[in-house]
What does this fold into?
Amino acid sequence: MTATRLSIFPLSGALLFPRMHLPLHIFEPRYRSMITDSLARDRRIGMIQPRDGKEPPTLFDMGCVGRIAEVEALDDGRFDIVLEGLARFTILRELDVVTPFRQVEAELEPAGESEVLASISRASLEIESRRFADGLGYAVDWEAVSRLDDEALVNGIAQIAPFDPASKQALLEANSLADRAELIVQLMQFYGRSGDEVGTLQ
It folds into this structure.
């Protein structure tokens, strides 16, 4: 693993995974400054979830670093960007900086190769996803879903599913794609039973 300095963007409910993409609209002055700084250096930003609503918030230990793959600078100083996930990271310590945005020293994980699910796990995930989407009244192109590779399916669901931040964090921290897929199925069953799409497992 490699230690590196990262500018971080704490955003509740926003997950990024290696090889996945995350569109973001950047409007706060401190994060506009962060984008400008990142574009001038290595185009990298660390996405991480806050643990609480304090200011500044306490952070979860693990996030994912992304590279700004697309950027549109708007006339009023805002940005529309797309981040491409590079690797998960773990915060070692927060740095004392003068920038308006926070920076940390973090340890990056190797991104590793794409993983494949057992066929029974894939089938279980697709069945539960249909039930969950139908229960919430979501319109889904299931033919397009069936064409996704296992990693894009699992991590795509983890990014967009309406789970609470602690549940999303558990998905990010899952050690394998199979573990993440199993946890998604459990979460969908839990939320489906409770009828509460912003509940918590805590």
About this structure: The longest helix spans residues 119-136. The helical segments are 29-40, 119-136, 142-147, 150-160, 165-173, 177-194.
